[in-house]
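Hey, I was hoping to borrow your eyes for a little while. There's a protein on my desk that I can't quite get my head around. The fold is given in discrete form, as structure tokens running alongside the sequence. I'd be grateful if you could look everything over and explain what you see. Here's the protein in full, and shout if anything looks odd to you:
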Amino acid sequence: MTPLETRKRLLVAESDLLRVQLSEDGERLKSAWDRSGVRARFWSGLVASLAVLMSGLSALRQNTSGDASKHASWGGRFLQGASLVSTLWLSWKRARGGSS
């Protein structure tokens, strides 16, 4: 075998090794990207839930301030609270990856 043939075989072997390494790097990158997407969905869902909670609490607080004639009945408050809990529950399920 000539030195040229030896060099050619070494270059082909090196090329094969580099191809395998590139493939492994691509798999690791894809895995990291998928994990970051899960984290982003979790945090965005959590922030959305907190925003809904804050707006709901703000609305309830506004309804409780003022004079007594503006107060809602206990049934109205119950429905508002149930609506808030329902919205938070659906937001939390969506953030955790569940179906709504």
In short: The radius of gyration is 29 Å. Residues 63 and 70 are 8 Å apart (CA to CA). The chain has one domain: 3-96.
